[in-house]
Amino acid sequence: MNLKLIDEINILVDRKLVVWLNVWAMVMFFVLIAVGLILSPELSGSITALGFFSFFITLVLTFFLHEWIHGIFFKVFAPGSKVQYGFKSGMLYAANPGTKYNKQQFTLIVIMPFVIITLLVLLSSAFPINRVALYLLFAIHTSGCVGDFYYCYKLWRNKNRPILIEDTAEGIKIFEEVKANNTIER
User: Fold this and answer.
1) Predicted TM-score of the model (pTM)
2) Residue 50 pLDDT
3) C-alpha distances in Å from residue 89, one per residue of 15, 92, 154, 155
4) If residue 163 lies in a helix (H) or strand (E), which one and from where to where?
5) Tens digits of per-residue pLDDT, 10-59?
6) Cα distance between residue 50 and residue 38, in whole Å
7) What is the mean pLDDT of the chain?
8) DSSP H stretches of helix in the chain
9) N or C: which terminus of the chain carries fewer CB neighbours within 10 A?
């Protein structure tokens, strides 16, 4: 099998894409806040300086956890590979440059931080935790997953094609598997 590059997404470099994704993240955030207020108008409360500090630390740790989960799933599907973590263009990232994954593997790699952290937030709601802060954490994290959701969208658009995805330090490359041409030109 030969590979043909059919799409390249440089999410950390493409300024136009970054702006577009940030707009969608803000829309998603405000929609989630509106839905939260409509479904739970009793959500209210005040926050202390300690509470704000605790929320901020939890939020930062959530971002690191998000990238660590990506890294775990990179390793699950490519055990011998070396995952890189970094910070670029205002974003934390986990990358596994040079390693190619099939559609199902890469979909799990990109969506699992959202799934796992959302489940942790839901489980946390069973404890006496400030529900406003918990929902705000959910809304911020979910809207921050917009890049991962965008990758899923791009993979879905290629759902009927045999593709492999290569993670790069700036984004992803999508390759189509094409059969080698065994004919000889004369």
Assistant:
1) 0.88
2) 84
3) 10, 8, 22, 24
4) strand 163-167
5) 987 889 999 999 999 999 999 999 998 888 766 666 677 888 898 999 99
6) 28
7) 90
8) 15-39, 49-77, 103-124, 131-144, 146-157
9) C
Summarised one tens digit per residue, pLDDT across range 146-159 is 999 999 999 999 88
Q: Are 77 and 101 in contact (CB under 8 A)?
A: yes
Contact present, 47 and 133 (Cβ < 8 Å): yes
| DSSP for 83-119, written as a single string | -EEEEETTEEEEE-TT-EEEHHHHHHHHHHHHHHHHH
Report the distance separating Cα 103 and Cα 121, nearest Å.
Answer: 27
Token match 């971002």: residue? 63
Residue type, 97: P
**pLDDT for res 40:** 78
Q: Is the pLDDT of residue 144 over 80?
A: yes
How far is Cα 109 from Cα 57, in angstroms, rounded to an integer?
A: 25
Q: By the 8 A CB rule, do 29 and 139 touch?
A: yes
